[in-house]
Each structure stands twice: as C-alpha cells, then as structure tokens.
C-alpha cells in the first residue's frame, strides 16, 4: 500500500463537569488526511485544504506533521518518506478538537500505512505531541476520544491513564459553532488557579453522577449531572449569547448544554436525533438574534475513532 | 407490635477521593436500637449502653432521639410515645459513622414500628437531622449508605440527590480504629477553603475512575482511583502512624487505604476476606509499634442497610 486516506472525528472535551478529564467523539464533523509514500525520507506537507491558509505548512510546526514525525522517530523508521495532504473539514479554534483530529488522523494513517506496527492505544502519546504544538500543552481530552472513539476519562496524566466509558446508543450530540473565535491559550489564561472546596465538592458530585448516568444508563441522572460550576461561569463570558443559546437548548429538550472544549462551540446532549436537531436549530436562532451566524452538527457519539476512507485497513 | 430492635451499619465516608460525596456501609460494626411503645406521648431515652456515659440522654440533644422526634413531627404523629434503648456497638468519634448509625437505626425502627408509613428513601432527611446534632452540619455521606446500604454518591445536597452504585461482590473492607480520638468539627476546621485547580482535576479523575471501576467492575481501576490529593494530606497529620499503617495495608495487598470519614479510623479495600484480614493485622501492628492499641473489623460492603433483629419487619 502506498497511499491511505483516514478520517478522524471531532471531539467534545470537558463535557460540562469534567474539565481536562472528560471527552467524547462525534460522527460529524472531523478531519481527513491522505498520506502518500515516497522514496525520499522525511515527512512533508504538500497541501492543506480548508484552512484558508492559516495552518503552518512546516512539518515541525504542524500538529499532524509533528505527530507523524514523533511516531516515526519512536519506531525507528525515519527512513520512511510521506507526503501529507490535510483536508480540514471543521473550523479552526472552534473548541471541537480540530487540532486533535488532524493529529490523530495523521498518526493513525501512518501506523496503518506501515502495517500497524503499534496497537491503536499506543498511538496516544504521539497524537498528544501534535496537540502540544497547537495548544501549548499535551492535553489528552480531545486526542484520546478522537483516537479511541466513545466517551473517555483521562483519570490521570502522570502516568497517562485513559478509561473508555460505555454510552447509551440513543445519546445524540448537537454541536453549534458560532462564527467567532476563542484562542485556547486565552481561554485557559482566564481560569483561576484556585477553586473553592465547596465548588470542588459540587463538581465531584456531578463527575460521579455523569459516569454513573452513562454506565447505568440513566438519562435523568445524565441530565442532572451535566452541570459545571467551575469553568463554565468563567469561560461563558467569552461567548456572546451563551446563556440564551444554552437556555434555548434546555427549553427544547436537551439533557444538558455547555461549552465544547474551550469554546466558542457549544454542545448539547439529547435522547434522540429529532430532539438534537431541534436543539441545534434553537441554539442557532439564539446566536442569529444578535447577528452571529453559526454551523450546527448533529450526530451520535462516535464509537469507532478514526476510519480508513481510501486504502486498505490492516485487519484488527 | 409494641417493641422492635434494629441494627444499622457503620459506614465509611469520603472513600479517599470522594470528600463529602462518597460513602459505603459495612456489615460490621454497627449500632443497635430498641424502641418500645408506651401510652404517654413523647420520645424518651431510657438507656444507652456502651457509650461510657458520654452521649446526651436528653432526647432533643441525642442523634437518635432528635431523628425520631423530627420524623414523628413530619408524619403528624406526636401522639406516639416510645422508650429508646440504644446499644452503642462501635467507638464514638471514630470516623465510622457512629452517630449516623444511631440516627438511622432510630428512624428506621420507628418507621417499622408504625407499619412503615414512609418508604425507606424518604427517611433520609430525618436521619440527617440527627447527624446535624452530632457534627454541626447535616451531612449525608454516612447517613445515606447506612440507610440504603451499599455504596452511595451524594451527587447534590441542594436538592438532595443520592445515587446507589453497584459494587463487586468480592470487595472486602478493613476498618481499623486506633484508640485515639479526633473531633469531627476539628477535622473539618483544619481543611483549607481553597483547592488548586490542578488538584481538583486530579481528584475528579479519581472520582470518575472509582465509579467506573466499581460499576465495571475493574479492581485495578478501583485501586488506581483510591487516591485523595486534597483531604488526606491535611487530615493525616491528626493520625499518628498514618503513613506507616497505610503502607502496611498496601504492602499486604489492599487495593487502597485512606481515612474513614474524618478519622481517626482508617479503611482499606481488598479483593478477598483473606487479604482484608491480613491487611487489618498489618495495620494494627503499625499502630502497636508506637504503642497505640486498635480494633479491626473486616466485612463485605453491606448491601441491605438497617435490619430488624427482634420484632416484625413490615413486608417490603
């Protein structure tokens, strides 16, 4: 095989109460990468489509490029030469794990192209390296769900301990991306370094409730637990009409609604595709009422992670 | 029926990472209460056995007394007259939910004696009233598991939201009570009101991991998640030889070990009765090495809550 095209899913990190520890993947949107083997060693970005020229083309500054480079170095295959074509299919700086999806797609693709020398779970550190370039720190809450699919808990960073949680089949996600931009570094900068013990206890209760709600499954418990008393109150001020869009989601039957990652995208979870569609329309309307256009995406929780679109997948 | 004797189980609150939100009941020890109906209205404490005269005999200052009084007032049965004999079968101020067990035993007993006018779940607020007298605040993390049995999450206090989590059948608890005393109010007073965001994230990861570990079940995950970076480092200084006793538990195969409630008792969880017994002996030895005697209790997680020992249980 000398060429492969891989899709990796967008992700919702934090998921209301689980700052830095929860994330899940969605079926739509996502990023697409095509790798083509070439004789000359080295990783080269030949084209990026859909980024309006904003992403770095230099391999060592590009999330997918650096992830692939780090991977090849680890498996002692710096003799490998690949050309990368990246198709960005979601907005940058959106809070939907755009950089993570590119990074995961890249690492997954090169591993498949080489006949899968490493099991999927072992790819995480290389995808995280790509994430480090994009956000300044190697977070796993977008990369892990994009790579593994489903809902994940990052129980610990040192050592890295990622747990996959089963989710109910009829849980649908609405993602709404208002056409404004929030820089991940800024979104992190405005957070306070200290949390009251009282709010820590409330947040822990919701973290426990959400995991129990997902695993049982118990939709009412999921709904009651989708509450963030620590991060959302601070970051919501970066998103115009946040409260109105959230209220519109809840009024239209969403189980819960909060910021996706560091924003400005917002996510809502609902019990059916129909409710999730209605929730999306209502949220878009809330943004539009102050002149902000937006994109809405509705899909199930993605359980698969990356998938090969063109080229041969290594049998698992 | 004019007399009933009820046992209510001791409990481990906090359970390492879950300060104020986690608690579980054990089969042993526990408290025992006997209620005897009498013609004259009013709640009267006729005897308390096993407290060395330290608990208040005045009904409105006794946890079981106040819980029963609050309950009777709520169901408009202040015409009822009962004599209470309380058999304390565990040390006071031990961190094993001594006051909660008395309170729960009392409320459960009066509700059964009257033919169960309220379902068990509805008894929680009255038992919490008893707890308020003992500890200064109406916490539920001892009362709820003592009343409901099993492992519970207090997801929220306002409104009260208690969730029961299934636990693996072969999970055994070791409770070791060193013969020293820690006042619950002191143990709370030394806690800081602020937590670093970093430690909040670590703790949330462990909270999520412990719930997932219990529900899966996954003993390794339970073990990795039984970590408390917020409360234990502060409260451990109140317990001489805490670090040595904890290390002895882990060295002897415990999945995890931490402070039970606000201490000074310590709990450990293990995968078998045999390991739990060995862990208990090793912890007692650690305390004894500095001249501190202790009691050790080994039992499964209690799944039943209170039980009627003498008298007729209302069919459920």
Helix-strand layout with pairing:
2 copies of one chain form a homodimer.
Chain A: E1 3-13, E2 22-38, E3 42-49, H1 63-74, E4 81-87, H2 98-113, H3 124-135, H4 143-148, E5 151-157, E6 160-165, E7 172-178, H5 184-189, E8 194-196, H6 197-215, H7 219-225, H8 232-235, H9 242-251, E9 256-259, E10 266-270, H10 273-288, E11 294-300, E12 307-310
Overall number of domains of chain A: 2
How many strand elements of chain A?
12
Question: What is the architecture of the largest domain in chain A at the second tier of CATH?
Answer: 2-Layer Sandwich
- Class of secondary structure makeup of chain A: alpha+beta
CATH topology of the largest domain in chain A: Ribosomal Protein S5, domain 2
Mean pLDDT of chain A: 94
Beta-strand percent range of chain A: 25-35%
Largest sheet of chain A: 7 strands, mixed
CA-atom Rg of chain A in angstroms: 19 Å
Give the oligomeric state of the chains in this entry, treating copies of one chain as homo and distinct chains as hetero.
Answer: homodimer
SSE sequence of chain A, one letter per element: EEEHEHHHEEEHEHHHHEEHEE
Most extensive contact: A-B, 40 and 40 residues
The separation of the N and C termini of chain A measures 17 Å
Just give the CATH class of the largest domain in chain A: Alpha Beta
Query: Low-confidence spans of chain A: pLDDT under 50, at least 5 residues?
Result: none
Counting DSSP H or I runs of 4 or more residues, the number of helices of chain A is 10
């Amino acid at each position: 095989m000398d060429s492969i095209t891989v899709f990796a899913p967008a992700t919702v990190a934090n998921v209301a109460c689980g700052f830095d520890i929860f994330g899940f993947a969605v079926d739509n949107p996502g990023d697409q990468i095509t790798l083509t083997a070439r004789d000359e060693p080295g990783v080269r970005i030949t084209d990026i489509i859909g980024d309006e020229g904003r992403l770095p083309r230099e391999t060592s500054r590009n999330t997918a490029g650096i992830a692939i480079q780090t991977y090849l170095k680890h498996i002692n295959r710096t003799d490998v030469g690949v050309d990368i074509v990246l198709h960005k299919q979601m907005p940058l700086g959106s809070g939907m794990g755009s950089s993570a999806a590119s990074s995961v797609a890249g690492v997954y693709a090169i591993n498949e192209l080489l006949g899968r020398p490493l099991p999927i779970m072992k790819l995480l550190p290389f995808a995280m390296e790509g994430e480090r370039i994009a956000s300044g720190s190697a977070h796993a809450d977008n990369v892990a769900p994009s790579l593994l699919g489903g809902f994940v808990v990052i129980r610990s960073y040192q050592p890295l301990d990622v747990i996959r949680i089963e989710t109910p089949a009829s849980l649908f996600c609405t993602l709404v991306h208002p056409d404004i931009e929030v820089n991940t570094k800024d979104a992190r900068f405005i957070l306070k370094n200290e949390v009251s013990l009282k709010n820590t206890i409330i947040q822990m209760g919701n973290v426990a409730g959400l995991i129990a709600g997902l695993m049982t499954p118990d939709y009412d418990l999921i709904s009651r637990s989708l509450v963030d008393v620590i991060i959302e109150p601070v970051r919501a001020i970066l998103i115009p009409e946040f409260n109105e869009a959230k209220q519109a989601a809840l009024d239209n039957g969403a189980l819960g609604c909060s910021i996706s990652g560091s924003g400005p995208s917002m996510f809502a979870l609902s019990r059916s595709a129909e409710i999730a569609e209605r929730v999306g329309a209502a949220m878009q309307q809330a943004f539009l009422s102050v002149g902000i256009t937006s994109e809405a995406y509705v899909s199930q929780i993605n359980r698969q992670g990356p998938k090969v679109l063109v080229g041969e997948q290594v049998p698992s």
